[in-house]
Fold this sequence. Notes:
The structure is a homodimer.
Chain A: H1 2-20, H2 26-39, H3 52-59, H4 63-76, E1 79-82, E2 86-89, E3 115-116, H5 129-142, H6 157-171, E4 180-183, H7 186-193, E5 205-208, H8 213-221, E6 226-229, E7 231-232, E8 235-236, E9 246-249, H9 263-276, E10 279-283, E11 307-312, E12 324-327, H10 333-340, H11 349-360, H12 363-389, E13 394-396, E14 403-407, H13 413-422, E15 425-426, E16 428-429, E17 445-449, H14 458-468
Parallel strand pairs in A: 3-15, 5-6, 5-9, 9-10, 10-11
Antiparallel strand pairs in A: 1-2, 4-12, 7-8, 11-12, 13-14, 14-17, 16-17
Amino acid sequence: MADSWVNSAERIGADLHLEMAGAGPRRAALIRALREAVRSGRLAPGTRLPPYRSLAADLGVARNTVADTYAELVAEGWLTARQGSGTRVAERAEPLGAHARVPTKAPPRARGPRHDLRQGTPDASSFPRAAWLASYRRALQQAPNEAFGPGDPAGRIELRRALTEYLARARGVRTEPERIVICSGFAHALRLLFAGTGGVLRGPLAVESYGLGFHRELLATAAVRTVPLPLDEDGALVGELGRERAVLLTPAHQFPTGGPLHPSRRAAAVDWARARGGVILEDDYDGEFRYDRKPVGAVQGLDPERVIHIGSVSKSLSPALRLGWMVVPERYVDGVLAAKGEREAWASVPDQLTLADFIVSGSYDRHVRRMRQRYRVRRDRLVAALATHAPHVEVTGIAAGLHAVLRLPPGTEQSVVKAAVWQEVALDGLAEFRHPAATMSAPDGLVVGYATPAEHAYGAALDALCGVLPPG
Amino acid sequence: MADSWVNSAERIGADLHLEMAGAGPRRAALIRALREAVRSGRLAPGTRLPPYRSLAADLGVARNTVADTYAELVAEGWLTARQGSGTRVAERAEPLGAHARVPTKAPPRARGPRHDLRQGTPDASSFPRAAWLASYRRALQQAPNEAFGPGDPAGRIELRRALTEYLARARGVRTEPERIVICSGFAHALRLLFAGTGGVLRGPLAVESYGLGFHRELLATAAVRTVPLPLDEDGALVGELGRERAVLLTPAHQFPTGGPLHPSRRAAAVDWARARGGVILEDDYDGEFRYDRKPVGAVQGLDPERVIHIGSVSKSLSPALRLGWMVVPERYVDGVLAAKGEREAWASVPDQLTLADFIVSGSYDRHVRRMRQRYRVRRDRLVAALATHAPHVEVTGIAAGLHAVLRLPPGTEQSVVKAAVWQEVALDGLAEFRHPAATMSAPDGLVVGYATPAEHAYGAALDALCGVLPPG
């Protein structure tokens, strides 16, 4: 016993000495040192610790300091104290790393590809830091105290008011603040709408034959069956809608093939919803970005009681803000809020107030205009580069949005995508977006996100793209 | 036909005139005016619009402006154009408000109660606006461009690193950044852990017999069966754990009854988890606020492979930020990230970077210390007020946290809660927090959140509280 204690004491002493040389109170340093010694395994489970007075004398600290330390570590479960058997290292303090500690998964996009032409994100280097910070400052300074208390699950009224005005003006959406629910983006909106037994919508849900895979996965996880609608040059064939409960459309700019939904199809979709009691989910993911004419207004404006309009700042500002909105028919408002949960505001309140200020102050319009200009130039450069280097490749879906579709000769998509990987050009083939149950023809093509690279990197990305296209 | 047109023209003309007097291009003004006229019902469905040239002449605009406007509104579905029948107002443009438009539900807490002693929120007026803004500015200025691109679902590495250090230092949590997942608060963490078929945990889940109702509801929605564990003065009777898969505990400060989990119970919980392959969910909701001695360290430190440690800034800073964290065993990391979804970062990236800066710069510690001081004074005032005005009422659970429990004479809780409503004192009775299947005795009591009121309002709230207590 004496031996084992002497050994421990030496080891503890050394550790403690090292630690206690640091700043701060002696007691805290002693607690840290002992914890560390147990953690690292240098003090093995079951080891008996020295009596207070010995350790206190050894270390030159008050006896109470040691007594407090032991009590603290007993309370935390590092040590055990039993009448008559003294203080010992607890059996259960398992060292970290006893199990595998190697991270199994690299964080996605930790290191970006050399040329990033993936669709879906705006140029991250163009985030309007100064203007956003100015809005943040104003928002934080002007916020009432209650803004820092528990939030309204619908989101801040300031933001819902700003959005009501903005969406009416810019997107032709007809609503009022009471029908807007703030969320963290389109996927969150889908989750809320189809949230288990509490959700306001149920499947089957008609979707476009081409769309985002992660939306389909999310719906599958929520046990929502999706039924693919064929597409033609006028958009989704909504005439094929039948007994589905809802239809998910991208009317402003079909994702990813690129055209707007034809007016007659818009009308037919609304007619279907009215006749069948169905609902249209309008994914207005890039409605602000239309280059050759005014944006096409939202379908929601045709019948606010039949359309759930969903938008976000993910394309217009940054997906990093996690800020979006749902404009919902009156009868769904309570259900969506219930799904959201009363204690969860989900989107940061300072950010909501900042976006409200950003919109009201005109910064949002200015930023969208600036980016529209910039993306238009990029689109034109893409078209020009292809005309020069690959005149046989048709570019479509370029009237709007942040991406284009390059039609490829039949049977070549897979090899072009492989060549792109080889050349470190990140982009997706059309097949990536196809609903597994789609029956329409499967054209070969590439989806090229021309907004993604930073401004200085765009030229090189275009060159690399042209290099992987099949010869004419 | 001519008549109906003349009437429409007059009405349109008037509207257009009004609208077109505003700034901006004529075409936009004309579109707005026509949309409004259809929206409001002044232009009834089916009404035929004048030919381009008539309207152009009437309004003094170019003929092309009218043609463009009609085309735009046809594209949006407001108007229809058919060969030979001219342009008409579409049948389906339903005016907003055809259905009930009265908001059915006032936003919760839109107007606060006169005296707010509800548990669960820090003093909203104490949010450290200046220090937070300083961190936000630094974070926004120093963020790399990729921060504004698609995020890592685990959360920003900067924040996970800061939390690793902070949680080790302040809470005795042993982890590494790769095992931390950022979320928007405790409820979000629960959702992620029990997320449908993809969740890493399944029920039954043992819970404390007293706890938050909205956690129970959330679990019920996720089809997780909860089994109540009785409580005594040492915390949850973890010796009664059996075949449950997991247990949810509030070890630092039982919510709401108020004591820390006894060291022997901590040890027993870990033993149970090891023996049965179970998991402990540690809700460390107010671990920073301990008044009479150093905080009790986290149970997680005893066995990082058996404990999921969950915390947030909701009590320490504000629930409005929606920022929390989960420290998860290695084997659950991938599952939790999968449940989170690759495209959803959920918590705003600028806010994550801000919190990282706030912690690393020492602002977080300073704020917690300041608030600890302030809340301790409030607690002492509460105890003193009760000693003077209601010496027969025992106060418990006051060593830590932002609330106290007032034990009431048997059978009086309900009437005291009613009296409180009458006196506009918002607080909850203990019954509010009781698991419906709990079998332990049901003491009468009040849960008093002494952190909630603003500083200047606290005295009046205390007076009002004393006024509703039963006579001795």
